[in-house]
Design a protein that fits this description.
heterodimer, A: 513 residues, mainly alpha, 31 helices, 73% helix, B: 613 residues, alpha/beta, five-stranded parallel sheet, 51% helix, globular
């Protein structure tokens, strides 16, 4: 087919001279349906040419589609012929070759000096070409090439910039400040250039100050952490890790610090970083309770120390150990000025001692019960005296004690005791409670005893509770209370005709007034 | 409620996609360890796992035996063991013990740990410390989100609440961010994100970071707006007794992972029955959002309808009968079965809840919410404690009192706590310490004038200095400011009007018309205004780190703009979900609730107990 190529070239020459024969030749080729191939071959041939003029000549035979950036370059100027003769010819090959040729011509310049053939270029790929340019520090050209060939930033410009920056930081004659500024100005926020990588390079070259400056440009705080750790800037690393919001990273730094620093410094560092501190506390709670204590100690956090002792008191099986722990808790609570907690803990200690004593004496099995549960247990064992002692010693509210005793006696069906108790003094919980509790334990007879003692407001309720409708009705009528009458009515059944009439009459009478 | 509904509600996106994705990933992970293997599963992952892949699916992928992680020596004889766990230090330590025990016994096995939803460095550190790092392989199963229903997604991380709000441990924030990121990449891009609370802010930031790192695909949004809210913005709502059916069922029977186990008292046999509670259950779907007082009416109506459907059989010829049996009967029977279950569940609830005590309890709660007859409430609580009605309930009332009243008077504070300790043991000192830290149970500061001054300052100069001043004040003590918020947002409807619970007029119906949940009210207000403007006073009182960010430009006024994802960080209650569903119906929105876990008053408070250490 080389004849064809020649053909075209000749034709080109003819055309140049405006010969009328040119047209004829071309038509001849076209008729053979080989024009496409001919054009393709010409373009290919151009690619392998070194001399720009020949390239131009070969390219010009090619079709006439809009060329890339027409005016700027000699090669493109050359490209324009045969357009009128060829329709439906894809311009891709032509465009690519044009671009590649421009790049090849550029690197063949003597100032660069890379006499690559087109085949070599294809073989080694564009990536490698850029790499070579970068290694020879032709950064501007490399960037130019990337942009011209429209390589995605990530693989192209950014990569070059990264190399450039890594090289820049090694320039010994410039100050840290100047380099940092220069890097920032060029790199800006190009995607894919990691300031932390550049900083790592600076650090490798023995310029830690520069590294720190560069790290400041790193937007993702998490990225800064590994290098900072390597540079032993652990405090900064910790605060950057916290800033990143990535707890795993925080934890990595904390573990690192724990092994690097002495304990005192480590705690001090944590103290300024609440996020890291709470993370470490969580870890200690599960892994090293003793460390947790030291942490609180260091902070003079007496409240937490108190809580710590209380918690550990429950782990201690022996009573002596438990009491000792609680005593420490009391001391800490006092230091924390938490009187309430101190007092409550002291009472707990007193209760424990009391329970121990009774367990020893009577085998009551009380240890560890709450005050209420202890009193309940004592009462059900019939140890009322001891229960009463607790009631006084621990200033148990009257109401609680009365409820407790009431239910306990009723449950054990000690009705006489109950009656005695009810008369011991005026009940702080009223007498309706007595009625209800007796009923709950299925003793209507006893319940009735207390109905008369109930306050007038609760009379109706009390009568109803024992099922005494008449009594309830009388009480409600006496009190002239409509809603109470209604309540009684709602409990009446058909057999209570008389009572219902009575109530209805009273209701009407009340309503009139 | 159907009559008040707008008819143009948008369609919800299909959340079951989430399930399919994680199932495929799990299978892939299991196949990474070819051959027969035993699988050990963290006990709280059992139910979530069951929703994703059942036992036969696991068996298909050569899982031989299934065990629950019990922190005891293991009995497995398989030479390959796979652990499927949450990234918790205790569990990893236990695995180390297992591995080391095998080593000591000269047994060789292959171990693989699958952390879900992610692994933490702390866990790997433990592996390293215990010298088994080289013996196990680790992987992550990105099981962030479990759709419990067509509009509820749970992260199933109950510990989120305690870790984040009590211990100040932010390890789960990134998890929440990743969960949001997943939703964004499947159903986004979101056009607007609102949020309130510190954790919300951090979650938002974590999510943004992940968006920036990944590539973005332009796609058609299915969810338009997102609202993030911290649980500590509103503690009042989860502390109230729930009276909407689904909430009540949760309070009483504890719904676990969308499934409830009705005990013998409901099934009236000696067996328990597990029932899935979601919109698939036609009966449940109609009553779940109803106030309990309406439920019986609904159920009996339903029963009558069902009877009519059955009655159709009479007078049918053979052909009709055949169609009836093949087409309708099965559905009717299913419905019948569910109906009778829900009826007995309601009866069981009635038995427990219509007693005098419960009525009084509710009355006390309403008084507290209204700030009315507080002394009576305190004596009620005192009696509650003294008579040892219930450890958690008493604690709940104490907290509700403190939160609504902005702390207790020093005298009451001491005496109530002392009585509580007498009832339930001194170890609750630790519980009190936790509650105080969270601001749930606090003493009124002697300088209560601060609040007065604060609000005055706030009114006079609503500028930066005021904000700074407030910050300074609020750092003194965590305060709830419930009263002020309630007034500002009209949370407590006037009690003199009759409230018809069958035809609710606002979200207050979920609490018998006594209180509009603060969390939902905030959401309503922000959506209405399309911003936080006009709510400055409210956010100041909450001290809330509020934000609103406009993201992808909504191309058209599409349906997606009316689908709102609400993410509760620290848990939300079924009552809140019901309230949002109501709001959605009223305004033509659809809400999808994402929560770190479903919570209620008991779960909230149990998470804060410390007597089990």
């Amino acid at each position: 087919m080389s004849t064809l190529k020649l053909f075209l070239l000749i034709r080109w020459a003819w055309f140049q001279k405006s010969s009328q024969k040119a047209d004829e030749y071309l038509r001849e080729i076209k008729e053979q349906n080989v024009l496409g191939d001919a054009v393709r071959q010409c373009v290919e041939a151009a690619a392998h040419e070194y001399d720009p003029d020949t390239q131009k000549a070969l390219m010009r035979v090619r079709s006439p589609e809009p060329e890339p950036e027409p005016q700027n370059h000699p090669i493109t100027e050359a490209a324009s012929f045969g357009k009128c003769f060829l329709t439906e010819f894809s311009p891709d090959q032509f465009v690519t070759t044009c671009r590649e040729l421009r790049v090849l011509n550029a690197v063949r310049e003597s100032s660069v000096g890379m006499p690559l053939t087109h085949t070599q270029f294809k073989q080694m790929t564009l990536q490698v070409l850029i790499d070579r340019l970068v290694y020879r520090q032709f950064y501007p050209l490399a960037i130019e090439v990337c942009r011209y060939l429209k390589i995605p930033d990530y693989q192209g410009v950014s990569r070059v910039l990264k190399h450039w920056a890594s090289c820049k930081v090694q320039q010994k004659d410039l100050t840290d400040e100047a380099i940092a500024r220069a890097v920032c100005a060029k790199v800006g926020d190009s995607p894919g250039v990691s300031y932390s990588d550049v900083a790592a390079k600076a650090y490798e070259c023995g310029r830690p100050e520069l590294a720190i400056k560069l790290l400041d440009f790193e937007a993702r705080s998490g990225e800064q952490v590994p290098l900072l750790l390597k540079m032993k800037r652990s405090q900064l690393a910790l605060s950057k890790a916290v800033e990143s919001g990535d707890t795993d990273l925080v934890y990595t730094v904390v573990t690192y610090l724990k092994n690097e620093m002495n304990r005192g410094d480590f705690f001090m560092t944590l103290r300024n970083q609440p996020v890291a501190l709470s993370l470490y506390r969580q870890f200690c709670k599960l892994q090293e309770p003793q460390t947790l204590k030291d942490l609180f100690n260091q902070d003079d956090d007496h409240q937490e120390l108190g809580n710590f002792y209380v918690t550990s008191s429950y782990r201690d099986k022996r009573l002596e150990g438990r009491l000792a722990q609680l005593q420490s808790a009391v001391d800490e609570y006092n230091k924390a000025k938490n009187d309430f907690a101190a007092k409550a803990t002291e009472e707990e200690m007193r209760l424990l001692r009391f329970q121990r004593k009774l367990d020893d004496e009577k085998g009551a099995g009380l240890l560890g019960l709450s005050l209420q549960a202890t009193m309940e247990a004592l009462m059900s064992l019939g140890l009322h005296k001891q229960a009463e002692q607790l009631y006084r010693d621990f200033r148990v509210p009257d109401k609680r004690y009365w409820w407790l005793k009431l239910t306990s006696l009723a449950e054990k069906e000690q009705w006489e005791e109950l009656e005695k108790f009810s008369k011991s003094k005026k009940s702080p919980i009223g007498y309706l409670a007595f009625v209800e509790v007796c009923m709950k334990n299925n003793n209507r007879h006893e319940a009735k005893k207390y109905v008369s003692k109930v306050t007038p407001e609760q009379k109706v309720k009390a009568h109803l509770a024992v099922g005494d409708l008449e009594g309830a009705a009388d009480a409600a009528i006496e009190r002239r209370n409509e809603s109470e009458m209604g309540a009684v009515l709602s409990r009446c059944s058909a057999s209570d005709r008389l009572l219902m009439d009575k109530l209805n009459r009273a209701r009407v009478a009340t309503a009139k007034k | 409620m159907a009559h008040s509904a707008r008819r143009d509600s948008p369609e919800l996106p299909d959340l079951s996609l989430l399930k399919r994705l994680v199932r495929d990933q799990l299978i892939y992970l299991l196949e990474q360890l070819p051959g027969k293997k035993d699988l050990f599963i963290d006990s709280d992952l059992m139910s979530p796992l069951d929703r994703i892949a059942n036992v036969s699916t696991l068996k298909q992928h050569e899982v031989d035996k299934l065990y629950k992680v019990e922190h005891k020596p293991i009995v497995s004889i398989s030479d390959q063991i796979c652990f499927l766990i949450r990234p918790r230090i205790q569990t990893v330590k236990w695995i180390c013990d297992v591995v080391n025990a095998d080593k000591a016994a000269g047994k060789f096995r292959r171990y693989k740990i699958i952390f879900t939803p992610q692994k933490f460095y702390a866990c790997e550190a433990v592996l390293e410390e215990q010298g088994v790092f080289g013996d196990v392989t680790t992987d992550e199963w990105a099981f962030y989100l479990l759709p419990l229903d067509e509009d509820i997604i749970s992260l199933e991380l109950p510990e989120f609440f305690r870790d984040n709000f009590l211990a100040g441990d932010q390890r789960w924030v990134r998890t929440a961010g990743s969960a949001l990121h997943l939703l964004h990449s499947l159903f986004g891009p979101f056009s607007k994100v609102y949020g309130i609370g510190r954790c919300s802010k951090m979650t938002y930031e974590s999510w943004r970071e992940q968006v920036e790192q990944g590539e973005q695909k332009a796609r058609h949004a299915e969810i338009g707006n997102v609202f993030l809210i911290d649980r500590d913005v509103d503690f009042v709502t989860p502390l109230c007794s729930q009276v909407v059916y689904e909430g009540l069922v949760d309070d009483i029977f504890r719904i676990k992972c969308g499934c409830v186990e009705f005990g013998p008292e409901v099934t009236s046999s000696d067996k328990s029955i597990k029932v899935m509670l979601n919109s698939q259950d036609k009966v449940f779907n109609e009553i779940r959002n109803e106030h309990f007082s309406n439920v019986f009416g609904f159920l009996s109506q339903k029963a009558r309808n069902l009877q009519t459907a059955y009655d159709k059989r009479r007078g049918m010829d053979i052909q009709q009968m055949k169609t009836f049996v093949s087409e309708e009967l099965k559905g009717l029977k299913q419905e019948h079965r569910l109906l009778s279950l829900h009826i007995s569940a309601s009866e069981s609830i009635m038995k427990k809840k219509t007693k005098q005590d419960f009525q009084e309890l509710l009355k006390t709660e309403h008084c507290l919410l209204e700030g009315f007859e507080i002394r009576e409430c305190i004596s009620f609580i005192e009696e509650h404690i003294n008579r040892q009605v219930s450890m958690i309930e008493s604690l709940r009332l104490l907290c509700l009192l403190s939160v609504t009243e902005n702390g207790l008077l020093p005298k009451d504070f001491k005496s109530l706590k002392a009585q509580y300790l007498q009832s339930y043991g001194a170890d609750h000192l630790l519980t009190f310490s936790n509650l105080r830290q969270l601001g749930l149970l606090v003493e009124q500061q002697p300088g209560e004038t601060l609040t007065v001054m604060e609000s005055k300052v706030g009114k006079l100069v609503n500028d930066r200095t005021a904000v700074k001043l407030t910050d300074a004040f609020s750092s003194l003590a965590k305060k709830s400011h419930f009263r002020a918020l309630s007034k500002k947002l009209n949370l407590v409807p006037k009690s003199d009007e009759e409230y018809d619970l069958r035809v609710p007029r606002d979200m207050a119906y979920i609490f018998s018309g006594a209180y509009i949940p603060l969390s939902c009210k905030i959401i309503e207000q922000v959506l209405e205004r399309d911003s936080w403007t006009g709510l400055e006073e409210v956010t100041r009182l909450i001290n809330g780190h509020e934000f609103a960010v406009t993201g992808a430009d909504p191309k058209s006024k599409s349906d997606a703009q009316r689908i709102i994802l609400v993410m509760f960080l620290g848990g939300c209650t079924f009552s809140e979900i019901s309230a949002l569903r109501f709001l959605g119906k009223e305004r033509g929105y659809k809400f999808i609730v994402v929560t770190t876990a479903i919570t209620n008053s008991s779960r909230l408070l149990e998470a804060l107990l410390d007597n089990n250490v």
